[in-house]
Amino acid sequence: MSTAQHYAIPVAETGWTFDGRSEVQFTWEYDEGRAALLGLYDKGKKQQWDAAERLDWSHEVDWENPMALPDQQIPIYGTPIWEKMSGKERAELRRHLQAHTISQFLHGEQGALIATSKIVMTVPDADSKFYAATQVMDEARHVEAFSRLLHDKVGLAYPITSGLRTLLEQGLSDSRWDMTYLTMQILIEGLALAAFQRNRDVSGDPLVQAVHAYVMQDEARHVAFGRLALRDYYPQLTEAERAEREEFVVEACYHMRDRFSQREVFENLGMDQETLLDMFRGSEVMQQFRARLFTRIVPTVKDIGLWGEKVRNAYADMGVLDYADFDAEELLAADAKVAEDLDAQAFVARETGKGLGASAAE
Ligand SMILES: [Fe+2]
Ligand SMILES: [Fe+2]
Protein backbone atom coordinates (compact mmCIF):
# COMPACT_ATOMS: atom_id res chain seq x y z
CA MET A 1 0.00 0.00 0.00
CA SER A 2 1.27 3.50 -0.80
CA THR A 3 2.89 5.36 2.11
CA ALA A 4 0.48 8.26 1.47
CA GLN A 5 -2.32 6.08 2.84
CA HIS A 6 -0.41 5.41 6.07
CA TYR A 7 0.42 8.99 7.11
CA ALA A 8 -1.35 9.85 10.36
CA ILE A 9 -1.16 13.57 9.53
CA PRO A 10 -0.84 15.21 6.10
CA VAL A 11 2.62 15.28 4.55
CA ALA A 12 2.75 19.06 4.38
CA GLU A 13 6.07 19.41 2.61
CA THR A 14 5.88 16.83 -0.13
CA GLY A 15 7.75 19.14 -2.47
CA TRP A 16 10.65 19.84 -0.10
CA THR A 17 13.63 20.95 -2.16
CA PHE A 18 16.55 23.19 -1.32
CA ASP A 19 19.82 24.27 -2.79
CA GLY A 20 22.34 21.53 -1.94
CA ARG A 21 25.32 23.23 -3.53
CA SER A 22 28.44 21.14 -3.81
CA GLU A 23 31.86 21.30 -5.34
CA VAL A 24 32.50 18.20 -7.41
CA GLN A 25 36.04 16.92 -6.94
CA PHE A 26 37.73 14.43 -9.24
CA THR A 27 40.92 12.74 -8.13
CA TRP A 28 43.69 11.51 -10.44
CA GLU A 29 45.54 9.67 -7.70
CA TYR A 30 44.20 6.14 -7.66
CA ASP A 31 46.92 4.33 -5.80
CA GLU A 32 47.56 6.15 -2.55
CA GLY A 33 44.96 5.08 -0.03
CA ARG A 34 45.12 5.23 3.74
CA ALA A 35 45.23 1.69 5.13
CA ALA A 36 42.56 2.31 7.77
CA LEU A 37 40.06 3.73 5.26
CA LEU A 38 40.76 1.01 2.71
CA GLY A 39 40.28 -1.55 5.49
CA LEU A 40 36.81 -0.11 6.13
CA TYR A 41 36.07 -0.19 2.40
CA ASP A 42 37.01 -3.90 2.34
CA LYS A 43 34.78 -4.55 5.33
CA GLY A 44 31.97 -2.64 3.63
CA LYS A 45 32.25 -4.82 0.53
CA LYS A 46 32.30 -8.06 2.49
CA GLN A 47 29.48 -7.17 4.86
CA GLN A 48 26.84 -6.38 2.25
CA TRP A 49 23.57 -8.12 3.08
CA ASP A 50 20.09 -8.52 1.67
CA ALA A 51 17.33 -7.07 3.84
CA ALA A 52 14.76 -9.27 2.11
CA GLU A 53 16.64 -12.46 3.06
CA ARG A 54 18.59 -11.86 6.25
CA LEU A 55 15.43 -10.84 8.12
CA ASP A 56 12.44 -13.07 8.77
CA TRP A 57 9.59 -10.92 7.43
CA SER A 58 7.04 -13.73 7.90
CA HIS A 59 7.17 -13.04 11.64
CA GLU A 60 3.92 -11.48 12.98
CA VAL A 61 4.14 -8.59 15.43
CA ASP A 62 1.66 -7.57 18.12
CA TRP A 63 -0.53 -4.89 16.53
CA GLU A 64 -1.14 -3.19 19.87
CA ASN A 65 2.60 -2.92 20.53
CA PRO A 66 4.47 -3.63 17.27
CA MET A 67 7.93 -2.79 18.63
CA ALA A 68 7.22 -4.78 21.84
CA LEU A 69 8.55 -1.94 24.00
CA PRO A 70 7.80 -1.59 27.73
CA ASP A 71 5.22 1.09 28.59
CA GLN A 72 7.67 2.60 31.10
CA GLN A 73 9.33 4.24 28.10
CA ILE A 74 6.25 6.24 27.21
CA PRO A 75 6.87 9.79 28.44
CA ILE A 76 3.49 10.06 30.17
CA TYR A 77 3.57 6.56 31.70
CA GLY A 78 2.36 6.57 35.30
CA THR A 79 1.01 10.14 35.15
CA PRO A 80 -2.66 10.94 35.95
CA ILE A 81 -3.33 11.22 32.19
CA TRP A 82 -1.95 7.72 31.60
CA GLU A 83 -3.90 6.26 34.52
CA LYS A 84 -7.16 7.60 33.08
CA MET A 85 -6.59 6.08 29.63
CA SER A 86 -8.43 2.93 28.56
CA GLY A 87 -6.58 -0.11 27.18
CA LYS A 88 -7.64 0.88 23.69
CA GLU A 89 -6.35 4.43 24.08
CA ARG A 90 -3.03 3.20 25.41
CA ALA A 91 -2.65 0.83 22.46
CA GLU A 92 -3.37 3.70 20.08
CA LEU A 93 -0.79 5.97 21.75
CA ARG A 94 1.80 3.16 21.70
CA ARG A 95 1.30 2.55 17.97
CA HIS A 96 1.44 6.24 17.10
CA LEU A 97 4.62 6.85 19.13
CA GLN A 98 6.30 3.83 17.55
CA ALA A 99 5.17 4.82 14.06
CA HIS A 100 6.57 8.30 14.70
CA THR A 101 9.95 6.90 15.78
CA ILE A 102 10.31 4.45 12.89
CA SER A 103 9.16 7.13 10.43
CA GLN A 104 11.94 9.48 11.59
CA PHE A 105 14.44 6.63 11.30
CA LEU A 106 13.18 6.03 7.75
CA HIS A 107 13.37 9.71 6.72
CA GLY A 108 16.78 10.02 8.39
CA GLU A 109 18.03 7.00 6.42
CA GLN A 110 16.91 8.67 3.22
CA GLY A 111 18.86 11.74 4.35
CA ALA A 112 21.90 9.51 4.88
CA LEU A 113 21.46 7.99 1.42
CA ILE A 114 21.47 11.45 -0.16
CA ALA A 115 24.32 12.73 2.05
CA THR A 116 26.58 9.78 1.24
CA SER A 117 26.03 10.07 -2.49
CA LYS A 118 27.02 13.73 -2.08
CA ILE A 119 30.17 12.67 -0.21
CA VAL A 120 31.19 10.50 -3.18
CA MET A 121 31.12 13.67 -5.30
CA THR A 122 32.71 16.15 -2.92
CA VAL A 123 35.40 14.31 -0.94
CA PRO A 124 38.85 14.77 -2.50
CA ASP A 125 40.47 11.34 -1.95
CA ALA A 126 39.87 8.08 -3.80
CA ASP A 127 39.87 5.93 -0.62
CA SER A 128 37.04 8.02 0.83
CA LYS A 129 35.08 7.95 -2.42
CA PHE A 130 35.39 4.13 -2.48
CA TYR A 131 34.24 3.78 1.08
CA ALA A 132 31.36 6.23 0.67
CA ALA A 133 30.16 4.23 -2.35
CA THR A 134 29.64 1.16 -0.14
CA GLN A 135 27.79 3.34 2.32
CA VAL A 136 25.38 4.54 -0.38
CA MET A 137 24.28 0.92 -0.82
CA ASP A 138 24.08 0.40 2.96
CA GLU A 139 21.78 3.40 3.32
CA ALA A 140 19.49 2.21 0.51
CA ARG A 141 19.19 -1.09 2.37
CA HIS A 142 18.34 0.73 5.60
CA VAL A 143 15.61 2.69 3.85
CA GLU A 144 14.28 -0.63 2.53
CA ALA A 145 14.33 -2.34 5.95
CA PHE A 146 12.68 0.50 7.90
CA SER A 147 10.16 1.09 5.13
CA ARG A 148 9.10 -2.55 5.23
CA LEU A 149 8.90 -2.52 9.01
CA LEU A 150 6.71 0.57 8.86
CA HIS A 151 4.43 -0.56 6.03
CA ASP A 152 4.01 -4.24 6.90
CA LYS A 153 4.28 -4.29 10.68
CA VAL A 154 3.12 -0.89 11.95
CA GLY A 155 0.83 0.30 9.15
CA LEU A 156 1.06 3.94 10.17
CA ALA A 157 3.49 6.74 9.28
CA TYR A 158 4.44 10.30 10.27
CA PRO A 159 6.01 12.99 8.07
CA ILE A 160 9.54 14.19 8.82
CA THR A 161 9.68 16.50 11.87
CA SER A 162 10.80 20.09 11.44
CA GLY A 163 13.73 19.43 13.80
CA LEU A 164 15.19 16.65 11.65
CA ARG A 165 14.43 18.58 8.49
CA THR A 166 16.39 21.64 9.64
CA LEU A 167 19.41 19.56 10.58
CA LEU A 168 19.42 17.66 7.28
CA GLU A 169 19.07 20.89 5.37
CA GLN A 170 22.06 22.40 7.18
CA GLY A 171 24.27 19.38 6.55
CA LEU A 172 23.31 19.05 2.91
CA SER A 173 23.39 22.75 1.99
CA ASP A 174 26.97 23.35 3.04
CA SER A 175 29.33 22.95 0.10
CA ARG A 176 32.30 21.88 2.26
CA TRP A 177 32.68 18.10 2.33
CA ASP A 178 33.63 17.92 6.00
CA MET A 179 30.40 19.65 7.03
CA THR A 180 28.35 16.87 5.42
CA TYR A 181 30.45 14.31 7.33
CA LEU A 182 30.18 16.21 10.57
CA THR A 183 26.40 16.57 10.33
CA MET A 184 25.66 13.11 9.01
CA GLN A 185 28.37 10.68 10.15
CA ILE A 186 29.10 12.19 13.52
CA LEU A 187 25.93 13.93 14.72
CA ILE A 188 22.89 12.33 13.03
CA GLU A 189 24.32 8.82 12.83
CA GLY A 190 25.70 9.14 16.36
CA LEU A 191 22.25 10.06 17.62
CA ALA A 192 20.67 7.31 15.51
CA LEU A 193 23.02 4.68 16.94
CA ALA A 194 21.94 5.54 20.47
CA ALA A 195 18.24 5.56 19.48
CA PHE A 196 18.53 2.27 17.54
CA GLN A 197 20.33 0.72 20.48
CA ARG A 198 17.37 1.39 22.72
CA ASN A 199 15.04 -0.48 20.36
CA ARG A 200 17.54 -3.29 19.78
CA ASP A 201 18.19 -3.92 23.47
CA VAL A 202 14.76 -3.24 24.94
CA SER A 203 12.33 -4.58 22.33
CA GLY A 204 10.84 -8.00 23.05
CA ASP A 205 10.23 -8.74 19.38
CA PRO A 206 12.86 -10.77 17.47
CA LEU A 207 12.24 -9.11 14.09
CA VAL A 208 12.45 -5.60 15.56
CA GLN A 209 15.65 -6.53 17.44
CA ALA A 210 17.19 -7.97 14.27
CA VAL A 211 16.33 -4.99 12.02
CA HIS A 212 18.02 -2.62 14.48
CA ALA A 213 21.00 -4.88 15.15
CA TYR A 214 21.78 -5.35 11.45
CA VAL A 215 21.37 -1.68 10.63
CA MET A 216 23.61 -0.82 13.60
CA GLN A 217 26.31 -3.15 12.33
CA ASP A 218 26.53 -0.95 9.22
CA GLU A 219 26.13 2.32 11.13
CA ALA A 220 29.05 1.44 13.40
CA ARG A 221 31.19 1.27 10.27
CA HIS A 222 29.82 4.60 9.07
CA VAL A 223 30.63 6.42 12.29
CA ALA A 224 34.11 4.83 12.25
CA PHE A 225 34.61 6.24 8.74
CA GLY A 226 33.57 9.75 9.80
CA ARG A 227 35.90 9.57 12.80
CA LEU A 228 38.91 8.46 10.78
CA ALA A 229 38.42 11.00 8.00
CA LEU A 230 37.82 13.97 10.29
CA ARG A 231 40.55 13.03 12.76
CA ASP A 232 43.00 13.34 9.89
CA TYR A 233 41.51 16.55 8.56
CA TYR A 234 40.64 18.76 11.53
CA PRO A 235 44.20 19.25 12.87
CA GLN A 236 45.05 20.77 9.46
CA LEU A 237 42.49 23.56 9.86
CA THR A 238 43.17 26.99 11.30
CA GLU A 239 42.00 27.88 14.79
CA ALA A 240 39.19 30.01 13.31
CA GLU A 241 38.01 27.21 10.99
CA ARG A 242 37.91 24.74 13.86
CA ALA A 243 36.05 27.25 16.04
CA GLU A 244 33.37 27.51 13.36
CA ARG A 245 32.89 23.72 13.42
CA GLU A 246 32.75 23.72 17.21
CA GLU A 247 30.11 26.41 17.17
CA PHE A 248 28.08 24.31 14.75
CA VAL A 249 28.40 21.18 16.94
CA VAL A 250 27.19 23.09 20.01
CA GLU A 251 24.18 24.51 18.17
CA ALA A 252 23.29 21.19 16.55
CA CYS A 253 23.47 19.31 19.86
CA TYR A 254 21.17 21.77 21.63
CA HIS A 255 18.89 21.58 18.61
CA MET A 256 18.73 17.78 18.82
CA ARG A 257 18.11 17.87 22.55
CA ASP A 258 15.35 20.47 22.38
CA ARG A 259 13.68 19.90 19.03
CA PHE A 260 13.64 16.10 18.70
CA SER A 261 10.47 15.32 20.58
CA GLN A 262 7.31 13.46 19.71
CA ARG A 263 4.98 16.40 20.18
CA GLU A 264 3.38 15.74 16.75
CA VAL A 265 1.87 12.51 18.13
CA PHE A 266 0.37 14.11 21.21
CA GLU A 267 -0.90 16.99 19.12
CA ASN A 268 -2.44 14.61 16.61
CA LEU A 269 -4.16 12.60 19.34
CA GLY A 270 -5.62 15.81 20.76
CA MET A 271 -3.69 15.87 24.04
CA ASP A 272 -3.13 19.17 25.82
CA GLN A 273 0.33 20.45 24.85
CA GLU A 274 1.06 22.62 27.88
CA THR A 275 0.25 19.93 30.45
CA LEU A 276 2.36 17.46 28.51
CA LEU A 277 5.32 19.80 28.16
CA ASP A 278 5.32 20.45 31.91
CA MET A 279 5.30 16.73 32.49
CA PHE A 280 8.18 16.12 30.07
CA ARG A 281 10.30 18.78 31.72
CA GLY A 282 9.74 17.26 35.12
CA SER A 283 10.14 13.65 34.03
CA GLU A 284 13.37 12.01 35.09
CA VAL A 285 12.89 9.16 32.62
CA MET A 286 12.70 11.68 29.77
CA GLN A 287 15.77 13.59 30.94
CA GLN A 288 17.80 10.41 31.25
CA PHE A 289 16.62 9.26 27.84
CA ARG A 290 17.64 12.56 26.23
CA ALA A 291 21.05 12.49 27.87
CA ARG A 292 21.61 8.91 26.73
CA LEU A 293 21.07 9.96 23.12
CA PHE A 294 24.50 11.63 23.34
CA THR A 295 26.51 8.57 24.45
CA ARG A 296 27.85 8.04 20.92
CA ILE A 297 28.27 11.67 19.88
CA VAL A 298 30.31 13.03 22.81
CA PRO A 299 33.30 10.60 22.67
CA THR A 300 33.45 10.94 18.87
CA VAL A 301 33.43 14.74 18.93
CA LYS A 302 36.29 14.62 21.45
CA ASP A 303 38.15 12.11 19.30
CA ILE A 304 38.05 14.20 16.11
CA GLY A 305 39.54 17.17 17.98
CA LEU A 306 36.57 19.53 18.25
CA TRP A 307 37.12 19.73 21.97
CA GLY A 308 37.48 23.43 22.74
CA GLU A 309 36.04 25.18 25.76
CA LYS A 310 32.72 26.01 24.11
CA VAL A 311 32.00 22.36 23.31
CA ARG A 312 33.05 21.14 26.76
CA ASN A 313 30.95 23.80 28.47
CA ALA A 314 27.90 22.94 26.39
CA TYR A 315 28.20 19.23 27.19
CA ALA A 316 28.68 20.02 30.88
CA ASP A 317 25.54 22.18 30.74
CA MET A 318 23.62 19.34 29.08
CA GLY A 319 24.89 16.88 31.71
CA VAL A 320 26.56 14.62 29.14
CA LEU A 321 30.25 15.49 29.59
CA ASP A 322 31.03 12.18 31.33
CA TYR A 323 30.35 10.31 28.08
CA ALA A 324 33.64 11.78 26.80
CA ASP A 325 35.41 8.96 28.67
CA PHE A 326 33.53 6.23 26.79
CA ASP A 327 35.69 4.21 24.45
CA ALA A 328 34.05 4.96 21.08
CA GLU A 329 35.91 2.15 19.32
CA GLU A 330 34.84 -0.41 21.90
CA LEU A 331 31.17 0.61 21.59
CA LEU A 332 31.31 0.26 17.80
CA ALA A 333 32.98 -3.17 18.04
CA ALA A 334 30.22 -4.31 20.43
CA ASP A 335 27.56 -3.22 17.89
CA ALA A 336 29.11 -5.42 15.21
CA LYS A 337 29.23 -8.36 17.63
CA VAL A 338 25.52 -8.20 18.53
CA ALA A 339 24.63 -8.59 14.83
CA GLU A 340 26.99 -11.54 14.47
CA ASP A 341 25.44 -13.22 17.52
CA LEU A 342 21.96 -12.77 16.02
CA ASP A 343 23.14 -14.36 12.77
CA ALA A 344 24.43 -17.33 14.77
CA GLN A 345 21.06 -17.63 16.56
CA ALA A 346 19.18 -17.44 13.26
CA PHE A 347 21.45 -20.13 11.84
CA VAL A 348 20.71 -22.45 14.76
CA ALA A 349 16.98 -21.71 14.43
CA ARG A 350 17.03 -22.61 10.73
CA GLU A 351 19.04 -25.77 11.29
CA THR A 352 16.76 -27.00 14.05
CA GLY A 353 13.64 -26.09 12.07
CA LYS A 354 12.40 -23.54 14.57
CA GLY A 355 11.46 -19.97 13.64
CA LEU A 356 13.48 -17.01 14.86
CA GLY A 357 10.74 -16.11 17.33
CA ALA A 358 10.98 -19.56 18.92
CA SER A 359 14.75 -19.40 19.28
CA ALA A 360 14.71 -15.91 20.80
CA ALA A 361 11.93 -16.76 23.24
CA GLU A 362 13.70 -19.80 24.63
FE1 LIG B 1 21.79 4.08 7.81
FE1 LIG C 1 24.64 5.25 8.09
Give the helices and strands, then pairings.
Elements: H1 35-46, H2 51-54, H3 80-84, H4 87-122, H5 126-154, H6 162-173, H7 177-202, H8 206-233, H9 239-259, H10 263-268, H11 273-282, H12 284-292, H13 297-303, H14 309-318, H15 328-351, H16 356-361
Explain this structure to me?
The chain is mainly alpha-helical and 362 residues long. The protein has one domain: Orthogonal Bundle (Ribonucleotide Reductase, subunit A). It is 68% helix and 0% strand. The chain contains 16 helices and no strands. The chain has helices at 35-46, 51-54, 80-84, 87-122, 126-154, 162-173, 177-202, 206-233, 239-259, 263-268, 273-282, 284-292, 297-303, 309-318, 328-351, 356-361. The chain is globular. Residues 357-362 have low confidence and may be disordered.
* CATH top-level class: Mainly Alpha
Give the oligomeric state of the chains in this entry, treating copies of one chain as homo and distinct chains as hetero. Answer: single chain
What CATH calls the topology is Ribonucleotide Reductase, subunit A
- Give the tally of β-strands: 0
Q: Helix-strand pattern, N to C?
A: HHHHHHHHHHHHHHHH
Number of domains: 1
Distance between the termini: 34 Å
Q: What is the level-2 CATH architecture name? A: Orthogonal Bundle
* Number of H/I helices: 16
**Which cofactor or ligand species appear?**
fe (ii) ion
Briefly summarize what is shown.
This protein has 362 residues and is mainly α. It is built from 16 helices and no strands. The chain has one domain (3-7, 34-361): Orthogonal Bundle (Ribonucleotide Reductase, subunit A).
